[in-house]
Amino acid sequence: MTRSMIIGTGSCLPERVMTNADLEKMVDTSDSWITSRTGIRTRRIAGAGEETSRLGTAAAREALAMAGVSAAELGLIIVCSITPDLVMPSCACLVQKELGALNAFAFDLNAACSGFVYGLDVADKYIRADPEIKILVIGAENLSARVNWQDRSTCVLFGDGAGAAVLSGTDQDRGLLASRLYSDGRLWKLLSLGGAPSRNPDLDIIGNHEAVIKMAGPDVFKNAVRSMESAVRRLLDDQDVDIGAIRMLIPHQANIRILKSLAERLELPFDKVYTTIQKYGNTSAASVPVALDEANRGGALHRDDLLLFAVFGGGFTWGAALVRW
Ligand code: UT7
């Protein structure tokens, strides 16, 4: 049976570091509020030359180098993002051009902060259908361009960055063992990012012409914890895996309190939860692949470790994946 294996990872964070002290000068907030309510201390802010496609391309180059796969060998590029450079062409096509990956087809995938796990799941389906294909899955965001810098309830949370993984087929009992995805569009109003003015009058009630992130924080918080917990439980039940067998949980990084609450409900010791939220804030679709790359390059992952991914984001979208490294 063919499985999908991650054979290379990479990441790229913008140079500029924005601290909580910087934010204190911009909005009515404080380092102590941000740190205690979110766990975030710094985030990276993209400047010129660090647009989503460029961050994604840089992360992809690292992942390809680690995998020992050339751009020409790629058959598919998926860019998971809610902040692509343009609506058309897709960010994936821009990355394809930059890499010179001319044998790949390429498309963007919008599942908000759940994007990378959605991307892994989609890539896995292609690999099962064509075990020879090599796939690049990227999570890349330029959220700082899409926050309202006057809104303290959101602007302190987000950051920019990109992470990437190269997947290939394997006959070994390793790689992506299972994944489960969920969506509930009924709750879309609780977390949204408008684009060009919509002609759908139903959507205008939140002023979606304002192309900035809007979030009902406490409602999203509760949904995030419950949804990730249930996705993980169902995945582990299906696979007949005990939580005690999990070596590491790499979750979407939105709030340290969400991660602590999730770990507590799952009865998973918090030292098994990989966190980057302190340094990078919430980078949406980039958060899991950036964390994965850091853990990988930092020597925290060992062959045959059981890794869990858990994600939650706008839509709502959520899901979980189980990987034997
Ligand atoms: O990535 C997709 C998923 N996203 C998430 O999962 C995020 C989920 N939500 C959260 O992480 C949290 O709800 C937030 C971090 C967004 C907010 O934390 P909270 O503890 O839920 O705060 P709150 O919204 O209930 O606000 C509490 C107080 C309010 O003041 P009052 O009404 O109690 O006087 C806010 O106005 O904190 C105030 N507040 C702030 N104060 C200082 C909100 N933002 C700030 C701020 N600095 N930046």
What does this structure look like?
This protein is α/β, with parallel strands linked by helices. 33% of the residues lie in helices and 26% in strands. The chain contains ten helices and 13 strands. The strands form four sheets. Strands 1-7-6-4-5 form a five-stranded mixed β-sheet, sandwiched between helices. It has a four-stranded mixed β-sheet with strand order 8-13-12-11, with helices on both faces. A two-stranded antiparallel sheet has the order 2-3. Strand 12 and strand 13 (317-324) form a beta hairpin. Helix 3 packs across helix 4 and helix 7 packs parallel to helix 8. The two termini are 17 Å apart. 50% of the residues are buried. The model has no long low-confidence stretch (mean pLDDT 96). The site of oxa(dethia)-CoA (UT7) has 20 residues, from helix 2, helix 6, helix 7 and strand 12.
